[in-house]
Design brief:
single chain, elongated
Length: about 70
């Protein structure tokens, strides 16, 4: 998809530096992919807070199961 956007030169340069990308397109792809990944992690974290994980076995129970 072709997109036209007005982005400050400083932000583009910093994004390219952190992403180690050789082109603006590559840098933006990396930045957007990383942003989406972080947002997915935040969503998952909040769902765990709302409904915490429940562990049915203690560490000792798991060790005993692994040793049999």
């Amino acid at each position: 998809m072709k997109v036209t956007a007005i982005i400050s030169e400083e932000l583009i340069e910093e994004t390219m530096r952190f992403s180690k990308a050789s082109t603006i397109t590559e840098a933006l792809k990396i930045a957007l992919r990383d942003y989406v990944a972080i947002q997915r992690i935040k969503e998952l974290s909040s769902s765990v807070v709302e409904e915490p994980l429940e562990f049915r076995y203690s560490a000792k129970d798991l060790r005993d199961k692994n040793n049999t």
